[in-house]
Amino acid sequence: MSEHAEPIFDAVVRIDKLPAAGRSISVNANDAECKAIAEAMNIVSVERFSASLTIVPLRGGLRAQGRLDAQVTQASVVSFEPVPETISEDIDRVFLPAPRDEHAPVPGAEIFIDLENDDFPDHIDGPEVDLSALLLESLALALDPYPRKSGESLDDLGIAHKDVEEGPFAKLAGLKNENGDKD
Description:
Helices cover 19% and strands 33% of the residues. It has three helices and seven strands. The relative contact order is 0.18.
């Protein structure tokens, strides 16, 4: 998906209009949105996609907490047969305004980033945050990268495995053996 593409569903929050007590957002994707999500994720189908988030103001930005639930179908990496998968992910993300210091770092300067910190914030520019991208990212990260049916393996396909090594070093070893050299 490109940065300027239309969001699949509406989950935009304006930071300047966010009440001090926060607000809730619920997303229940309809059939057309589920189809668009499946296309964006490059999977067979999305049968169900729902999320509920609580958004509260935090240090000039916001914190989004909640849960994503989805039922998806992917193609098996072994047989290409449909493999259903249930996704249930907790979401906790912080969005803070990008720093606008008078002393911006000079090119080549060292900048310390603590990658071990679980609360590493996302930076935002402008008064609004589109949480649809957060939800799609959470789904993409939760998908099984190698889906396959239970007990399925390459042996089930009847493909014969070659015991002979292939490649340039195997061919060199073969040449060495043909010339009468012993291992």
